[in-house]
Amino acid sequence: MLYGDKGSEAFLSEMVGAQSHVGMRAMAMESLYEYGSRAGFWRLHRIFTERGLPLTVFGVATAMEANPVAVEAMLAAGWEIASHGYRWIDYQYVDEAVEREHIARAVELH
């Protein structure tokens, strides 16, 4: 909802059976994602960098745009960033020109 989606996120969470709330925010789901970017990422960053372990991050570009300091830390650690698209949407019916724009924007980020 915060990024122009029609409904709240329903996937990639520990909330079994979560459903999208059309036209409204799901604060519990948003809290999970916010915690990950604020605290969870930095814990994983510390664990991997302390051990010198290589890492590939599959990141959605809009999330990375919202967390530029984390992106800088990934790059400084020598991590590979593999784009997971510009937005977390189903691109099956997205116009090709829009998809190309999203690919270019995602690649520019890193």
From TrEMBL:
One of its GO terms (molecular function) is hydrolase activity, acting on carbon-nitrogen (but not peptide) bonds. One of its GO terms (biological process) is carbohydrate metabolic process. SUPFAM superfamilies: Glycoside hydrolase/deacetylase (SSF88713). It comes from the Bacteria. It holds the Pfam family Polysacc_deac_1. Residues 27-110 form the NodB homology domain. PROSITE patterns: NODB (PS51677). PANTHER family: POLYSACCHARIDE DEACETYLASE-RELATED. Is involved in generating a small heat-stable compound (Nod), an acylated oligomer of N-acetylglucosamine, that stimulates mitosis in various plant protoplasts. Belongs to the polysaccharide deacetylase family. This is Chitooligosaccharide deacetylase. It comes from uncultured Asticcacaulis sp. The lineage of its organism: Bacteria, Pseudomonadati, Pseudomonadota, Alphaproteobacteria, Caulobacterales.
